Amino acid sequence: MAVGIAPTTSENSANYNGRITWFVVLSSMVAATGGIIFGYDIGISGGVISMEPFLKRFFPEVYTKMTQVAEISNYCKFDSQLLTAFTSSLYIAGLFASFLASPVTRTFGRRPSILIGGIAFLIGSALGGAASNIYMLILGRVMLGVGVGFANQSVPLYLSEMAPPKYRGSFNIAFQFCVGIGVLSASLLNYGVQKIKGGWGWRISLAMAAVPATFLTVGALFLPETANSLIQHGNDHQKAKQILQRVRGTTDVQAELDDLIKASDNSKAVKQPFKQIIKRKYRPQLVMSVVIPFFQQVTGINVISFYAPILFQTIGLGASASLMSAVVTGLVGTSATLLALLIVDRVGRRAMFSFGGIQMFVSQMLIGVIMAVKLGDQGVLSKGYGLLVLVLICIYVAGFSLSWGPLGWLVPSEIFPLEIRSAAQSITVAVGLIFTFIIAQTFLAMLCHLKSGIFFFFGVWVAIMTGFVYFFLPETRNLPIESMEKIWRDHWFWKRYVCDEQDYEKGDT
């Protein structure tokens, strides 16, 4: 039996006309800027909290442990709940904002959610850059979290709905590519401002999020709404047809428009999408909306994204070398995401998940062994072993950026029927933010208690998720987004849950 395999082409996709136009490319570039801000906010915190002037001002106890307590474990120098609250407050705020963003996205469209996200990013960056106390600092992170909640709800949907079915994977991965650019930009900026005289370089780091936020906010004013959204909340078929003609570069878009109208009619019969999604016929989508973002967070990538400079200081690198190492890993991640963008619609989602999972597992196991054997509690890695750990971390980051990084956003955004799409995307974003918050809030304590075992902990999860994808995730490459239900009906496991239309009419739950 062919496990987990579904057709990778569709008769419907052949009936859709169109090509990649500059109109859709530019619109998607503006929307994907939300990814740059998300990545920037992830990457900036780890570098900022490794800067001595920042620690002295806001977290003096951590600074004392780092500089004056010689006997403390390598793994426990940065263990502080207040310090992790600074990082994780963004994600708990994003969690609540994502549920508010769902009805906004469904009722008013994707563009208003993107605009709200951009405005929240602007407020958050201003508060962070001007912070004079810990309360102002964390409030700024909370506002950034509101922006994350709205942007992560709307941007992946926008990209999936604007893209031609044949190239949907590449367009959607542009979001993750922008996240990588944001992380890399944050690392470069942190490295550049760390030695500014007067010790106020951290203000520049926190405030510079306003640059992409301004681009996103202004750009959102001029973004076209997607045809899917116009039909769903406005029932304006003529305007939707005009948008389709512009983004597809052809006047013959009737086949795609008819499918969108049909999907919209089905969605309008659903008054409470959060109740609808728990029905039996949506069981595969509900499971994926929870499992995929959960797995994405327990890959351990946040060990690198949030705390890369701290992690590199743990293995014995100085502050400057740690920040430069974070730049290197950011560059590797961005390059690998660009490769993913180029090959995802040729290679397919499942193959990339599998290859990246194996790459991450092997590198994590090796890092754990080296740190257990060669570093210990109060030792220092030799230059050779420190370089080897850096190389292995780069291999791990490349594996994530080829698989769970971009595909963790792409697959959920393309598998949901229109009638439950906003609700399901909210669940996806919320689950991702819940576990991002949990890991961000507990990582420094986990590092202190598990020590090198933390890499084995995440490595086991990577093995589990790679097996799950192989057995339970069908291939979605080249399928029109409104014809995605076919993959579940053809899947060896999920077909037992997905009923025929006759069963739907019986109200099967």
Q: How is the secondary structure organized here?
A:
Blueprint (H helix, E strand, L loop, with lengths): L10 H5 L6 H27 L3 H7 L1 H9 L12 H28 L1 H20 L4 H29 L5 H26 L7 H7 L2 H13 L4 H8 L2 H12 L5 H15 L4 H4 L6 H15 L3 H5 L2 H7 L4 H29 L1 H27 L7 H20 L1 H12 L5 H30 L2 H20 L12 H5 L11 H5 L4
Helix pairs in contact: 2-7, 2-8, 2-10, 3-4, 5-6, 5-7, 5-22, 6-7, 6-9, 6-10, 7-8, 7-22, 8-9, 8-18, 8-21, 11-12, 11-13, 12-13, 15-21, 15-22, 17-18, 18-19, 18-20, 19-20, 19-23, 20-21
Q: How much strand?
A: under 5%
What is the radius of gyration? 23 Å
pLDDT < 50 stretches = 1-14
Helical run tally: 25
Bin the helical content: over 70%
* Average pLDDT: 81
Amino- and carboxy-terminal Cα gap: 28 Å
List the helices and strands in order: HHHHHHHHHHHHHHHHHHHHHHHHH
Q: Please state the overall shape, judged from the principal axes of the Cα atoms.
A: globular
How would a crystallographer describe the biggest sheet?
A: none
Total count of strands: 0
